[in-house]
């Protein structure tokens, strides 16, 4: 309890490039072992070196949970992942053949993007691979991901582009708008997918700097509004938003 309270006294600076873990006076034990700096390095090593999908999924899932919400040490771990060059390792998993690995990586990136510096880096380097995982478009072969995975990816994209104009520009440059509008209007996607896609589109339209370029490309304001009338009512096994935020 003393260690936790000492950690909470550190000033909140989500944009700081480095954040040092509080110095310990006693060895970590029990559940504390799960969120020590050296353990974060082990997760990153597993992400970079392992070829086993189950290990990659579990490592990304552990990072997702450790970085969730406003927990004090979640902030330290979000920074540590950046300092240890772990962001690129997680972003690379978005191209993995295993859907479970892709979903775990997406969830981890969403929680890591709460950190403003991470958000900037993820926007630059992960948006293209996030967009490639969305249904539609010209990719060959087309990915056929589950509703839960598509919703996870859409929620991650939204987290990354909120208060991040450059990431929203990158989304537009990588044909993300076409895929989002297709999800919103095609009529063969679930209500959860349509709502998640519409949230991203509304975030994009909220940037006044992007409206004229989008209109020049032929998009209208109505393209960026939710369209549930044509949404498929078929839901997956889970009707909840699978997120640790």
UniProtKB/TrEMBL annotation:
Signal peptide, first to last residue: none
GO cellular component: adherens junction; cytoplasm; nucleus; plasma membrane
InterPro entries referenced in this protein's UniProt entry, alphabetically: ARM-like, ARM-type_fold, Armadillo, Plakophilin/d_Catenin
Subcellular location: Cell junction
Gene Ontology biological-process annotations: cell-cell adhesion
Keyword line: Cell adhesion, Cell junction, Repeat
ARM repeat positions: 85-122
A Pfam family annotated for this UniProt entry: Arm
Name recorded for this polypeptide: CTND1 protein
Organism: Alca torda
């Amino acid at each position: 309890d003393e260690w936790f309270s000492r950690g909470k006294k550190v000033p909140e600076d989500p944009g700081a490039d480095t954040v040092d873990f509080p110095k310990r006076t006693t060895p970590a034990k029990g559940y504390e072992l799960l969120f020590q700096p050296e353990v974060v390095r082990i997760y990153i090593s597993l992400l970079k070196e392992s070829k086993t999908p189950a290990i990659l999924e579990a490592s990304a899932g552990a990072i997702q949970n450790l970085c969730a919400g406003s927990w004090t040490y979640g902030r330290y771990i979000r920074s540590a992942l950046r300092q240890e060059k772990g962001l690129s390792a997680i972003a690379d998993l978005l191209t993995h053949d295993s859907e479970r690995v892709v979903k775990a990586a997406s969830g981890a990136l969403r929680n890591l993007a709460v950190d403003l510096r991470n958000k900037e880096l993820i926007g630059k380097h992960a948006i293209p691979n996030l967009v490639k995982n969305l249904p539609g478009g010209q990719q060959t072969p087309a990915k056929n991901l589950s509703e839960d995975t598509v919703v996870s990816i859409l929620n991650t994209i939204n987290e990354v582009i909120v208060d991040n104009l450059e990431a929203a520009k990158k989304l537009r440059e990588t044909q993300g708008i076409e895929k989002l509008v297709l999800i919103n209007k095609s009529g063969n996607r679930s209500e959860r997918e349509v709502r998640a896609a519409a949230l991203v589109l509304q975030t994009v339209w909220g940037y006044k700097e992007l409206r004229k370029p989008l209109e020049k490309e032929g998009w209208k304001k109505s393209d960026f509004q939710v369209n549930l009338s044509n949404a498929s009512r078929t839901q997956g096994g889970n009707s909840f938003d699978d997120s640790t935020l």
